[in-house]
Amino acid sequence: MGFDVHHIREQFPILKTTMHGKPLVYLDNGATTLKPKAVVDAIDHYYEEKTSNVHRGAYQLSSDATDLYEGARVKVRDFINARTENEVVFTKGATQALNLVAQSWGIHNLKAGDEILCSELEHHSSFLPWQYVARVTGATLKFIPLTEEGRITVENTKSVLTENTKVIAINYVSNVMGYIAPIKEIAALAHSVGAILTVDAAQALPHMKVDVQDLDCDFLSFSAHKMCGPTGTGVLYGKLDLLNVMEPIEFGGEMIDLVGDVTSTWKDAPYRFEAGTPVIAGAIGLGAAIDFIETVGYENIVAQELKLRQHAIAGMKEIDGLTIFNEGAETGIISFNVDGVHPHDMASIYDAEGICVRAGHHCAQPLMKWLCQPATVRASFYFYNTMEDVEAFLAATRQGKEFFSDVFF
Ligand code: PMP
């Protein structure tokens, strides 16, 4: 069956709700996505029928829960084409995964004179862990210069790459600009000088097929909640030979091999990085989200997002005094400002119409500085949004523009 957005929407219970008496128009998918019933049901099934801890109990219920949890790991393995499920570490989100790489690999492998490359396009979760590592190890943090449009390119990465580069830490898709970075080519560059590449793919997995073997990245992090899955769950993919020599950063139950009074030894990856009771329900929910996304199909997801984005941009261009910062983006994000109106004021206008958008610095303050803006408005579309959503968004944009021109000018 072809892509039918109305059939898709029926599977998202929240889309039947209203906000301020208006139909809910959810355009903050960059922050988190809505959850289909299948994902909520999978989580409910675990809690209602399979609640027990994993890897522990010598009884059937625990073994069933372990099968569900480990089954989700296998789904992630296939989804991102990891070589083995042991390369898939469950975390509480992309932030924890990105920090894990910096805290474990970064702290133990870097020293003064080494260089870390990142960019002003990074989310704070991608950039701050390495700023900290640079401070405590004496390594130098360098920025890949962005193009005039605000992109990371191979050429610009080359311009700051040296024999001292040990880490490149960049995003795959920017949460503000929606640009896709040339990760495969940058992985090759990193490896040409013996550096590793760690990829923040939080905004990539929701929109595009990611094949870690094809990219040849060393680490890749993402969150379930940005791809129809539950909050509190994420994934760190890492090459197994790297993971298995990295020190854990959290210690506790289930991650040990042998515990002695003075020293202890750790299980192999992924378990050495999953201390304590893991994100069981979250991982099961992520598995259901993967099934859902695969059923919808990335080609349909991208086509719908881009159709909506194109229509929105065309409508926005007819409104005077709007600045769009990322007209050429390949994903469903539009970052913009209405001249003379604070983004938070615009967000209140949208909210009154039942429209959810994000206004602020989007956890990307270096990029706001680069854009010379204190903040922006961000509308981010996903495959369950409709042309009617775009029309409502455009009408509210016109209304906000007129309202604030009357008030202030
Ligand atoms: N990186 C990017 C590009 C993001 O958009 C986000 C979420 N806004 C994160 C990292 C962090 O994800 P989480 O908050 O789910 O840990």
Features:
seven-stranded mixed beta sheet; 409 residues; binds 4'-deoxy-4'-aminopyridoxal-5'-phosphate; globular; single chain; alpha/beta; four-stranded antiparallel beta sheet
Number of helices: 14
User: Can you summarize the main beta sheet?
Assistant: 7 strands, mixed
Number of strands: 17
Alpha carbon gyration radius:
22 Å
Structural description of this entry:
There is one protein chain. The protein is globular, with a radius of gyration of 22 Å. The mean pLDDT is about 95. Helix 4 packs parallel to helix 5 and helix 11 (about 300-315) runs parallel beside helix 14. With about 400 residues, the protein is an alpha/beta fold. Helix content is about 40%, strand content about 15%. A seven-stranded mixed sheet has the order 4-10-9-8-7-5-6, sandwiched between helices. The chain has a four-stranded antiparallel sheet with strand order 13-14-17-16, with helices on one face. A two-stranded antiparallel sheet has the order 1-2. It has 14 helices and 17 strands. Bound molecules: 4'-deoxy-4'-aminopyridoxal-5'-phosphate. 4'-deoxy-4'-aminopyridoxal-5'-phosphate binds near residues 125, 175 and 223.
